[in-house]
Amino acid sequence: MKPGTGAGRRLVCCVAMLGLIAPASSSVAVAAPPGGPQDSDQRYYQAAVNLLPETDGAYAGAVSFRQEIGGATTVDVFLSRAATITCPDLSEDVATATVQTETRDASEPGPVVLDIGHSLDQAFGQAVVNLVVTASPGCGEPESITTLAAQKVQIAVTGTSARFFTGITGTTSAGPNRSTGRFYDFARDSTGSLSVGSLIVGAESSAAFLKYAVERQRTNGEAPVAPDPVAPPGGTGARGDYSAEFEPTGGPGVLFEDAIVQASTTSAPGRMTTLSASSFTVELIDCGDGTTAFREQFVVGSGPGVLTLGRKLVTATASGSIQFDRFVTDGCQGGETVSDTVVHPVALNLAATGPIVRVSDTRWQVKPGGGTERTHGWYLGREATGTVAVGAVAGTTNLASIGSAGP
To answer: DSSP assignment of 206-265, as one string?
Structure first.
């Protein structure tokens, strides 16, 4: 494997897959009197076609059209593909490409049109927009970014399920700051097809949807930022994520490393604590014959441990020694992945950096002939900072939180 390709390409692929399912857009605040509450109220129709990853080198992602009631119609394109290739030196690498609109709500140069039935039985979307293609050919070749001007994007969607009703009401609060929201939609599972310029023509998908959505939100004070939930129902938890890139000088060395530790204690009476952890390292190594190659190591595992939280979630410490599955890919040894098991110590030490945030929500779904499903939950969380360690991979957290959850 050539230096500067494999590990970075895998990270690009992972990030690209985040765009696989078309997301619902957040609402935009409506102007409010100074010092008063801020309100938002949005209603829109949406039609989206998702392509699932089926074969090596095939595109996956989504094309989504959105029509604001009384506002603009926009389109969002995010597609990516990754293919395993053989380099001139017979090593393997990954070539990637992403295709996306210049913004998540593109409308230029236009027009952008969405014709959708109010009963959500079918929809047809068509747009002329600029597309940005980012290609990483692998094997040490440089990345390229190309803008394709005025490309035609098109979807056709047909509803296949009964129309169902889904919603969530929630509150996020921290001291005097409070944000409440109510979001609901009528939707149908659907099939569809999409075309994106000359890159994809008439691709069929069974992973499409149609919906009409309402998003209402009110914020008093500053909108609280909700930490990620880290505790199981009725229990406590803490998590720390660390990652860093390096530029070794004068030869081989570590290029990238990350470590993640999640500690969770279940509710009474069991009160069992589990540590889940992983680490990933990429090194440039000397093969001893005048060449260099990558050595990648990934470990992942879980096991019993100890988690201690301070009063009001002000601190969190976790520790234990757990067994990991280890996967090592050595470019000097032909690039094949070998696996074994190892035992590593795991540690997490955090101190809260933000206020206690309470998050509660009620979710429901109503299907014709299928009754109503309703769930309610809440948790407390605090953003934090500290250190995380998985074996020899250790550092200061980039992201961390401490929390507890209701039953």
So the answer is: EEEEEEEEEEEEEEESSPPPPPPP-S-TTSEEEEEEEEEE---SSS-EEEEEEEEEEEEE
Across the range 193-202, mean pLDDT stands at 95
Return left, alpha or beta for 35; rule: phi > 0 is left, psi -120 to 50 is alpha, else beta. left
Residues 269-301: tens digit of each pLDDT: 989 999 999 999 999 999 989 898 999 999 999
Query: Could you tell me the two tokens for 196?
Result: 């994106």
Burial (CB count <10 Å: 0-12, 13-18, 19+), residue 304? exposed
DSSP code per residue over 303-340: EE-EEEE-GGG-EEEEEEEEEEEEEEEEGGGTT-EEEE
In the chain, what is the greatest distance between 2 CA atoms, to the nearest angstrom?
Answer: 71
Asked if 126 and 153 count as a contact pair (C-beta separation under 8 A), the reply is yes
SS3 369: coil
Query: Rounded CA gap, 247 and 196, in Å?
Result: 39
- Token match 């390096």: residue? 246
Q: Which of these, 381, 384, 378, 382, lies nearest to 396 by C-alpha position? A: 384
**29 has pLDDT over 50:** no
Q: How far is 225 from 200, CA to CA, in rounded Å?
A: 39
The contacts of residue 334 (CB under 8 Å, 6+ apart) are none
